Amino acid sequence: MENMKILDAVKQPPKEALKQIGGGRLKGMTDVNPQWRYQAATGQFGPCGIGWKYEIKRLWLEPGPDNQIFAFAEIDFSYKTEDGMWSDAIPGIGGSMLVPKESSGLHANDEGYKMAVTDALSVAMKMLGFGADIYAGRWDGSKYKEAPQSQKVISRPSSSSTEDKTEEAEVLDELKRCFTNLGWRAQQIDNFKDSFPEIKGKAKLTLEEKRFLLAELKKDIEGRRND
After folding, report:
1. In which element (H, E) is residue 73 found?
2. pTM for the whole thing?
3. What pLDDT, on a 0 to 100 scale, did the predictor assign at position 20?
4. With 60 as the cut, is the pLDDT of residue 136 above it?
5. Does residue 54 lie within any of the structural domains?
6. Residue 153 · residue 207 · CB < 8 Å
7. Within a domain: residue 68?
8. Domain range holding 72?
9. Phi/psi of residue 157, each to 5°?
């Protein structure tokens, strides 16, 4: 089998499978509807259980701040190869909140484990290239971009420019709105931020890091709504 065959077939989701997670100069920051991944996998390999499958290896809980509880899932994803053999397992680990703290207090999320499994599946399926052009910043649902978003940021003027200051203010305002809607306090915000190794423990984030945090926060919120 050609090495890029699967990736080329599933790297570009259709526009209707994309969810906008930004505005203004954040245009192009999108996420992929989980249901599209399953449909694309069925189209590529066959029905779930026949052409592709996953196994839940482990479900576990971790304590969070303020008596919150995190739910995590570890799965193995496999697909049927062209010669009829099952591929090696592709691992994925995902997480969600089982008992989050909201403005009214602690809340029991009866779909916490399901959301964690959905997240774990998305991690494993990314390794095969599902939605690759979105995560690489090359596709916005209607046209290809000239360069990944990260490269465009590098080529911008310094953060002291009026343009970057305006964008940074927009990102901060959007982050504050999201945190307020979730009812998160400082400790919960820090805990979410520290779940990403690239920004863990940083007291001051760059504009690009703030944009990254906003994108991940939006994906988390959309995942809660979809699951």
Report:
1. strand 69-79
2. 0.59
3. 67
4. yes
5. yes
6. yes
7. yes
8. 11-226
9. -65, 170
DSSP secondary structure string for all residues of 40-52: HHHHHH-SBTTTE
- Res 142 pLDDT > 60: no
Residue linked to tokens 């799965």: 75
- pLDDT tens column, 197-215: 777 777 788 888 888 888 8
In this model, does residue 148 exceed pLDDT 70?
A: no
Does residue 2 fall inside a structural domain? no
Q: Round to whole Å and give the CA distance between 85 and 88.
A: 9
Bridge partner residues of 143 (DSSP): none
Centroid of chain to Cα 207: 19
Neighbour-count burial of 24, counting CB atoms closer than 10 A to its CB (0-12 exposed, 13-18 middle, 19+ buried): exposed
pLDDT of residue 186: 79
Task: Answer yes or no: is 1 within a domain.
Answer: no
What's the rounded Cα separation, in Å, for the pair 7 and 18?
18
Structural domain count, the chain: 1
Question: What would you measure as the largest C-alpha separation in the chain, in angstroms?
Answer: 58
Higher pLDDT, 110 or 19: 110
